[in-house]
Structure formats: structure tokens, C-alpha cells
Amino acid sequence: MQLTAKPSLPNALLISISTPQFKGDEATESLAELARLVTTLGFKVVGTQSQKQSSTQKVNVLGSGKLAEIAHLTGNKGMVEDEQEDDLPDEDPLTEISSEIPSDELDFACADVVVFDCDLTPSQLRNVENQLGVEVFDRTGIIIEIFSRHARTKTAKLQVEIARLNYVAPRLRETSTGDKERQMGKGAGETTLELNRRKVRDQLAELKRELVSVQDVMMDRRTQRSELFSVALIGYTNAGKSSMMRAITGSDVEGENKLFATLDTTVRALYPITQPRILVSDTVGFIKKLPHDLVASFHSTLAEAHDASLLLYVVDASDPSFRSQLEVVHKVLAEVGVEGSKKLLVLNKSDQLSTEQQKSLMDEFPDAMMTSTRNPDDISKLHKYIIGIAQEDMIEEEIVIPYTAKGIVGEIRSSMSVVKEEYEYSHIKLTVRSSAIDLERLKKRMLNL
User: Fold this and answer.
1) Which portions of the chain are predicted below pLDDT 70?
2) What is the DSSP letter of 4?
């Protein structure tokens, strides 16, 4: 199932179901986030509606009266049945949370897509689509589509395609009466639907085999870098991680004011270059209610964070909901087993805060660092902090190198920090700072000269 934003049909109506377990500010923030997700796909949000329900398990999700009301907002393109629901009285009004166009004007800007801020079962999806006459999507479908569009590397594409097929498989339908006829020849006795489901299972098996092969290659690359000090940028989507990546590495990592503008993990060296080099990785952003299959794919996507020496938790300090977003980050990291590394909370986008707001946040988070990627002094401060943490694990030692040992000094300068150097009659005396592994490797090499 692919979601396509048509230039002539860009209008989306968002629906929130408020339940005893999901209500209030949590539901409001989630619906606002869904609006940003839908906008990222290129649709225009023309309205948002919310209704209280005891659960999201009703056959049609909403009561028949409410479906008729929404059908009016989609141009009455479907067939709304007169079926009564018993979860709540049908006359309970829809409560509008927010809308770019008032409810009484929505019929003049008919919605072409309806998106629910919850997961819908295949039967719920089918029932609501039949009654509204427009495409209907749930939150998981929207997120998977965004991931699918933004994946660039082979690993990310494989992970997202696996998640997409797992989502699509139970939602496959008979497309016409002819499809229900039994097929002859290969697969005789199977309907087209059964054949399509078997095809999806075969695709999933092949994709999983290919992903294992690609992940083995990635593991080899990480092993080669494992001796270097590494920093992983972790945070909610749109927290400014890509902008920070560009600022502290001088790289051209893409960054936009959109959710999931970047999806693939990028690794660059800290700039200005240090000796030994320090690697920085920009990982995929997090989001609330992330689909289970995509959480599973994070095991590979966040592999750089597993091996990181330092985790920078980047938050958009100007976003009032960043605390709950930070909880999501902690939860997902725990699910994929990322823990134990040194951590620093980075309160980003401080340029969008008043002096009073900055002071209040620093009082609340005294161990955090307040930054703006637009302020060179802030980037310099963060750069120095990273180097300071990296040097805590380094060993300082004096190395005596005879002039006859050609090439050794050049290798030392390229992989270690030279603190002091003295030139004697028969040798060079260098005081270096480096990791224990590199120093041990250098000593063994010196013994073989």
C-alpha cells in the first residue's frame, strides 16, 4: 500500500480518538505531531477532529452518526451505513481540537485523505474507507511511508521495506470479483489474494536474508572504527541533530525543518580534526508511537550508538513538549539495548529562547549544555567538551624514537596527540596522549625495529 500525495488532491483531515488511556495534553500533542507528519508527505491539513471513545476497537472506530458527519467533510463520496454503535451514545458531538479551516467551512475544502492518530485493523480500515469514500490511513501507515521515502542507504531501504511489507500483508484485499476465482496452473487452487500473500512472504524472507548480509558488512566497518573515540547524536526527530552534525563536523549532512528529513546513519570526523580522530554519528530521529517493526529496525540503525563512547541527547529546548520527547528517546534506547555510555543533554535551539527561559532550563537541568548551532561560540564549547571527554580515557606516555626508525614519527602524529617533543643527539623524545590499545601497538612495533 503506497500513499501518494496528488497535487490536485492534497487535503487531509486528521482524526483523534480520545480514550481513558489516551487523552488530554498527550492526545493534543500527538495530533499536532501527526499534522507535521502528514505535512512532511506534502499534504495540506484542512482540519483536525477529536472524539471521545471508550476504546479504538469499534468496528468502524467511530459511531455511524460521526462517520456521517465526517463523510460530509469528505464530500459524501462513500456509503455511510445506518448502523448503531453501543460504546457511546451516537449523539456525542465531535470535539474539534484545532482546524486551519473552521468545521462549518470544511465542506468547501473537501478532504481527500482521512488520517487517524491511532492504529487501525485491516477490517477497520476497509470499513471506514467504504463509508467515507476516500483513502484512509492510520498513524503507522503514515510513518512507514515517510521512512520509505527518506531511506537512502541499502540498509535503511531494506529495513523500511521489511516494515512496510509486514504492515501491508494483513491489509491485502481482493481487488475484484474475478480475483476470487481459483487460479489454474502454478498455485492452482489459490485465489489471487492468497497468491499475493505468498508473494509477500517470499519477499520478506529474501529481504531478511539480504539484510543479514548487509549488516555483516556494516559490523565489519564498525569493528574497524571501534578503537576510535566516537560520539552519537541521539534525539527526537526535528530536534536539530543534522544541523549540529554539520556544525561540529563541517559536513554537508542534509537537514530540513521536517520530521525525518534524514533517516540514514551518517558518520563523520569531528572538525577541526583531532589526533586521534574523533568520530561523530548522526542517528535517525525518534517519534512517539513508533511502529513495532520500525523499532526492530532501529537495532541496526542505532548500532553506532551501541558502540559510542559518548551520547549527546539533543532536544529542541524551544519545544514545550521536549521533556515527553526525551522520555520517548530513553524508552526506545532501552528497547534496543543502548545504555551505559557517557551522556550529555544538549538543550538545542537556545536562540529561540528568552534569557529568562534559558536560565530556568539550566536551573532545571544543571548538567546540560545550552547551545544554538547558529552560535560559533556554542559549537566551540561543545567541541572542547567532546575533546575533554575523549582525553579522559587517554594515557600520556613518553616514547623514545631513534632517528633510524623511519616513518614512525609520521604515524604517531597521524594517530596520537603529541604533547611535547625533544630532539636529542641519537633520538627524538615524544610525549604523547593516546588510547592504551594504540600505545601497546606502538611499543610492539618499536621492539621489532
Assistant:
1) 1-10, 77-109, 173-190, 218-226, 253-264, 292-293, 295-301, 303-304, 339-340, 449
2) -
To the nearest 10°, the Cα dihedral for 196, 10, 48, 18?
10
3-state secondary structure of 411: helix
User: Is 431 a known ligand-binding residue?
Assistant: no
Q: Does residue 250 have a known ligand-binding role?
A: no
Task: Look at the pTM and tell me if it is higher than 0.90.
Answer: no
Task: Give pLDDT, residue 89.
Answer: 41
Q: Where does 74-191 have alpha helices with state H?
A: 122-132, 139-150, 154-168
H or E element that contains 254: none
Establish whether 236 is an annotated binding residue.
yes
260 is in an annotated binding site: yes
307 is in an annotated binding site: no
Q: Has 6 been labeled as part of a binding site?
A: no
Give every CB contact of residue 379 below 8 A, 6+ residues apart in sequence: 247, 248, 371, 373
Q: What is the pLDDT, as a whole number, of residue 96?
A: 39
| Cα angle 419, 424, 428; round to 5 | 45
Q: Is 130 annotated as a binding residue?
A: no
Is 196 annotated as belonging to a binding site?
no
Q: Is 375 annotated as a binding residue?
A: no
pLDDT at 22: 85
Q: Annotated binding residue at 261? A: yes
Contact 72, 120 (CB under 8 A): no
Measured between alpha carbons, how far is residue 97 from residues 27, 45, 334 in Å?
Answer: 10, 13, 33
Dump pLDDT digits (tens) for 179-219: 444 444 445 556 888 888 889 899 999 998 998 888 777 66
- Long-range Cβ contact pairs of 212-219 (< 8 A, separation 24 or more): 214/154, 214/155, 214/158, 215/155, 215/300, 218/155, 218/300, 218/303, 219/303
Residue 339's pLDDT is: 67
Q: Does residue 239 have a known ligand-binding role?
A: yes
238 is in an annotated binding site: yes
30 is in an annotated binding site: no
Is 91 exposed, middle or buried, given 0-12, 13-18 or 19+ CB atoms closer than 10 A? exposed
The answer to whether 40 is a known ligand-binding residue is: no
Rounded Cα distance between 174 and 180, Å, is 7
Q: Tell whether residue 301 is among the known ligand binding residues.
A: no
Is residue 156 part of an annotated ligand binding site? no
Q: For residue 171, what pLDDT is reported?
A: 81
Distance CA 223, CA 307 (A): 9
Annotation-wise, does 340 bind a ligand? no
Ligand-binding annotation for 282, yes or no, is: yes
